[in-house]
Amino acid sequence: MSASTAPAAPASRATRPRRTSSTATQVLFDAPGPKGRARIALLSILSSVAILAVIGLGLWQFQKNGQLDPNKWVVYLRADYLAFLGRGLLGTLKVTAVAAVVAFPFGLLLALARLSRFGALSRAATVWIEFFRGIPMLLVVYAFLLALPAYGVTVPRFWMLVIPMILVSAATTAEVFRAGIKAVDVGQHEAAAAIGLGRRDALLSVILPQAVRLVLPSLILALVTLLKDSTLGYVVSYNELQFQGKTMVSITRYLVQTYVVVSIIYIALNFLLTRIALALDARMKARASAS
Amino acid sequence: MTPTPFRPGRRAVVAAAAALPVGIALAACSSDTGAGPDLGGGSDDGGAGSPFGDAVASGPVAADDVVSGSAWATAIKEKDKLVRGGTLANQVFSLASTSGGQPTGFDAGLTQLLAQYILGDGGAEKVEYIDTTVETRETLVENGTVDCVIATYSITPERLEVINFAGPYYLSGTAIQVRTEDKDTISGPKDLTGLKIVTQSNSTGVQAAEENIPDYDESLVQTLPDNESCVAALKQGRADAYVLDQGVLLGNSAADPEVTVVGDPFVDDPYGVGLSKDDDDALEFVNTFLQEIIDSGTWKDLWTATIGEVIDGEAPEPPVPGDLPA
Amino acid sequence: MQAIAENIPLLVQGIAYTVALTLLGYVLALIVGTVLAVCRVSPIPPLRWAATIYVEIFRNIPLLSLLILIAFGLPDVGLRLPYFWCGVLGLTLSSAAFVCENVRSGINTVPVGHAEAARSIGLGFFGTLRYVVLPQAFRTMIQPLVNVFIGTVIGSALCSAIAVSEITWVTQTLNIQYAQAVIMFLVAGAVYLGMSLGGSALGGALERAVSPDPHGSSRRRNTLDVTAGAQA
User: Fold this and answer.
1) Binding-site residues on chain A for chain B (CB distance < 8 A)
2) Phi, psi of B236 (to 5 degrees)
3) Which CATH class is domain C2-222?
4) Residue B115 CB neighbour total at 10 angstroms
5) Using a CB-CB distance cutoff of 8 angstroms, which residues of chain B are in contact with residue C76?
6) Which of A11, A181, A254, B177 suits a disulfide with A211, CB 3.0-4.6 Å?
7) pLDDT tens digit string along B3-37?
8) pLDDT tens across C136-192, in order?
9) Which pTM value belongs to this model?
């Protein structure tokens, strides 16, 4: 039953029609008349020139400092360079995957604890969540790298990166899950109660399946955050992409090129994930408003 | 088994037989022309017969009862590999090869000799190299991620409180690196007064600077988390001098003609093999090993094949292993 | 405790740097982000494309990579800024992308009819923005913008990797010196928590202050909005 009725929940809440960036355009800018169109054309040309000038200036700076030398760039197509960075990418994907697999269920548990009727449990979960949302992950990483070993607590290098990722990500995804659970329509609770389900059964078989669907796009974005956070492997000497890039700089001395290439890889991956999340979100909203 | 030995490339490294001459690596990496430097050792025209390969091949193998007398060495023998913490990005001491060869350099050679000493013939290839930085070395030794750290690792009283050091195996010293165009105006710590200095966080450079630069001004010192950033800061004029132990600085100069090491080292930095305090028998074992390669002349051959390429003159007298600073 | 007492000036300086990095980065990001948002929804295609590309780059690049590129990459192409301003620039560029997307989705909540009505009574672009669009969009933007603020607070810690002596850098340096980890982590943690919770509280108060219905304002937060993407 949940599958067919799930989209109805946000639909009832979504009182405003579906909006795209063109609505924002209409809010801020009037539909252009003939004079307006001429002005838009003129401004288009002017802004194109300005943008091209900025890009040109940047490239010229690169050229002037000898950073556009093709020899410094084509090397990144060589098998040994690709393998070197590929090893880092694999490390990045591995920590991200492991962290996500642990952090997401953990986040759900935290969310349920925070929503629990037991005051103490709820308060503890709230403190935990606010704490790990409010401090930088770098600090947590340093705790595992420098502070805890002094007290005899040491974990392998992989976990020195992954545990902080889990702690921080679980706290943020807990809030995502909480919002998802709250976004499920009150009517669903009432309907579950009406067919005689207890609180726990209602939660498990009616509310959660819908909530998880609702938060799916947000969870994909949490994956993006995890991927970005994995760059802190740089601090614990874990061979993820950023760290491999650093080592590569030491050997090749092509600092700008290496970090640009590394950044492009991150941007491409995250762009892809963000697109998926937004597409999924748009599809869910479209379905919701259609029903 | 911890997940940390996640290094697919290791198989490629282990697969190749012989080490590569550092000379070729240096030549390939110091030039800025052509299709870009190899990520390490150069092409595969090195191999046995190179001074480095010969030095490693000439190393001793421990008798079985020597290995079985040490729980630490026995454990390494059982897993049939030595896990070393260090860097693979130092041109003189430890440089990776992605073209299939073994890492080269003084520390890399020492690592391979130690592996061969424990694991027997062919042991030089059974090393797993784990990257560490100045900030992470102590922790990774303590928690057993690595069997030992061989990484231009200066023995200091502070570090001795946390871990054990075998050695010293090389007497280095804190030195100064400057932009090559400044090499005639700066020759020692006395010239650094009022200049901006960069060094690595948690390194011996901070204290050395504080104690040796006249009118030392703390606000002129910047600390960065790694060697790459320090070199960049120096080259880009964010700092005028990079103060750290000579081993690291020599590696930088070998890779990059824009920076030069000036003057003589002004604070002793004896390098040791970092070992966990939990493995107390490892200390004696590694010291015995160091004494053996010193006595057999392997130490000098290795020095000539690596550090000797960038320092003029004969190999110095080796230090006395076990002779730790107070 | 002794480690704290002996280093009060250093700690105060660290806190000052953290606060300065965060506030400068955030305020500049608000300005840049709003301009970007206007560009992104403007009828002028090149501006729209440029703003879109900007957002896609800067919301997807890890902040650490960005900071290292700015601090050590830019000098190689002829632009060398002091470390502190490298930090501010990195935080601004990154947070501005998220501000832009949140402002855009805030503007989206304003009914087109309101803007058309404003224009028909003769309000110009800035008049419409000032009197009709922003007052309505502002309330829905508060919570997302508080999240961007928290992201900026947390992001400022990464500036320690480029030698900005902010509070993470100071406490880690003292930690190495004194080996009093717990107290150092407490100090740093308290600074960050204070700032992020303070930001949240301020945002909440602001939200209540501008809410037309002081009792029913919390419902809106329950909706999930992913349009802005994920901030590290």
Assistant:
1) 71-72, 74-75, 78, 80-81, 83-84, 87, 90-91, 94, 145-146, 149, 154-160, 234-239, 243, 246-255
2) -90, 5
3) mainly alpha
4) 26
5) 232, 236
6) A181
7) 433 333 333 333 333 333 333 333 344 333 335 55
8) 888 888 989 999 999 999 999 999 989 898 999 898 888 777 767 788 888 999 999
9) 0.82
